[in-house]
Write a structure and sequence with these properties.
Blueprint: H1 6-9, H2 12-20, H3 23-30, H4 39-44, H5 51-67, E1 71-77, H6 83-99, E2 102-109, H7 136-142, E3 147-150, H8 153-156, E4 165-170, H9 175-181, E5 192-200, H10 216-227, E6 231-235, H11 239-242, H12 249-252, E7 253-258, H13 271-278
Parallel strand pairs: 1-2, 1-4, 2-3, 4-5
Antiparallel strand pairs: 5-7, 6-7
The structure holds S-adenosylmethionine.
S-adenosylmethionine binds at residues 76, 78-81, 83-84, 109-110, 113-115, 132, 152-153, 171-174, 177, 180.
Length: 279
C-alpha cells in the first residue's frame, strides 16, 4: 500500500521513472562501467555507489596527494548494519589506488543501536532507543580491513588513533551524539588534514522530519561554529551548481576548515589548473 508520506517525499517508483527519463542519469549509470583511469569522470557524474562518500574520500585523497600525506583516515560515525562502511571500504581501496595514498577506514557505533534520546534536541519524534541494531558477527565477517570502534562514541573516540583524517560521515542521528563525535576536531591538528570534507546525514531529508537549526546535527554545527574562531564548518556551496545530477547530499556536504593547521596555507592548485584560471 502507498504510504501517506509519499505525498510529502515522493515515492521510489516515481523517482526511478523520472531518473530513467533523464539523460544525465543514464550517462551517469553507463559511466559506472568505465575503466579505473576514468575515476575523475565517475566522481563528477556521481556514477559510483554512495556518491557523497565517493566525493568526500576523493577530495580527501587529492588533498593528501598535494600536501604530501602518504596515508589518511576516513570515518563513518554511525554504522548500524554496515552498508555505508562496506561502501566506504570499496571506495577507499579504489580511490587510494588511483592517488597512491593509503586510506584507512574507521567506523564508530554503539553496536546496539540508538541510545535513548536525551531531550527535544535529539528529535525524539523521529527515533527510538535501539533503532538501527547491528549484527556484529555478520558485519565483522564481511569487512575487509575497516576498524570498528564499538561502544558509545564519547568513550571510544578519545582512544582513536589513525592516520590524519580527511573525510567524515556524521550519521549518528542525535544532537547529543553528534556533539560527542565533533570532539574529533578538538584533537591536535596533526590528527587531520587542514580541510576535512564532512557529510551530515540528518540535516535535510526526509521533509517530514522538519529539521531545525535549534536541534539535531544542525544545532551541533551551529554551536561548533559559535565556539571556535580558528575552525569553521562551512557548507560546500558550489556543489549543487556543478553537478549534472541533482541530489540532496550536495547540501549535506561541509568542509571543516582548521585555519591554524600548519598546512592550511600550502597551495593546492595543480599547475595546469592555476594557469587555466589565470588565463
Ligand atoms: C542511521 S544509523 C547509521 C547508518 C549508516 N551510516 C549507514 O548509512 O548504513 C545511526 C547509528 O548511530 C549509532 N549511534 C547513535 N548515537 C551513538 C552514540 N552516542 N555512540 C555510538 N553510536 C551511536 C546507532 O547505533 C546507529 O546504528
Amino acid at each position: 500500500m502507498q504510504s501517506d508520506f509519499s505525498g510529502i517525499e515522493g515515492s521510489l517508483g516515481i523517482y526511478r521513472l523520472l531518473n530513467f527519463c533523464s539523460p544525465a542519469y543514464i550517462i551517469s549509470r553507463l559511466a559506472r562501467f568505465l575503466p579505473d583511469r576514468y575515476l575523475p569522470t565517475q566522481i563528477f557524474l556521481d556514477s559510483l555507489k554512495r556518491p557523497a562518500y565517493a566525493f568526500g574520500i576523493y577530495t580527501a585523497a587529492i588533498q593528501a596527494r598535494l600536501l604530501g600525506y602518504e596515508s589518511i583516515s576516513v570515518i563513518e560515525f554511525g554504522v548500524a548494519g554496515g552498508a555505508g562502511l562496506l561502501s566506504m571500504e570499496l571506495l577507499a581501496r579504489r580511490i587510494g589506488a588511483y592517488f597512491d595514498v593509503t586510506i584507512e577506514v574507521h567506523g564508530f557505533d554503539s553496536g546496539v543501536g540508538l541510545p535513548k534520546p536525551a531531550d527535544h534536541r535529539d528529535h525524539p519524534y523521529l527515533w527510538r532507543e535501539g533503532d538501527f541494531q547491528m549484527d556484529r558477527d555478520r558485519l565483522s565477517s564481511r569487512l575487509t580491513g575497516a576498524h570498528l570502534w564499538l561502544g558509545p562514541v564519547a568513550e571510544t573516540l578519545p582512544r582513536f588513533t589513525g592516520s590524519p583524517v580527511g573525510f567524515v560521515s556524521f550519521d549518528l542521528d542525535f544532537y547529543s551524539s553528534t556533539i560527542d563525535a565533533l570532539q574529533l576536531f578538538e584533537m591536535p591538528p596533526a590528527t587531520r588534514l587542514p580541510r576535512v570534507t564532512c557529510y551530515f546525514d540528518d540535516i535535510l531529508l526526509p521533509n517530514y522530519a522538519s529539521y531545525t537549526e535549534k536541534a539535531g546535527e544542525l544545532l551541533a554545527i551551529d554551536e561548533f561554529n559559535r565556539d571556535h574562531s580558528s575552525m569553521a564548518l562551512s557548507p560546500l556551496r558550489g556543489l549543487k551548481y556543478t553537478k549534472p545530477l541533482k541530489a540532496p547530499w550536495h547540501e549535506q556536504t561541509y568542509v571543516l576548515h582548521d585555519f591554524g593547521h600548519e598546512k592550511y596555507r600550502h597551495e593546492i592548485q595543480q599547475e595546469q589548473d592555476r594557469q587555466r584560471r589565470l588565463n
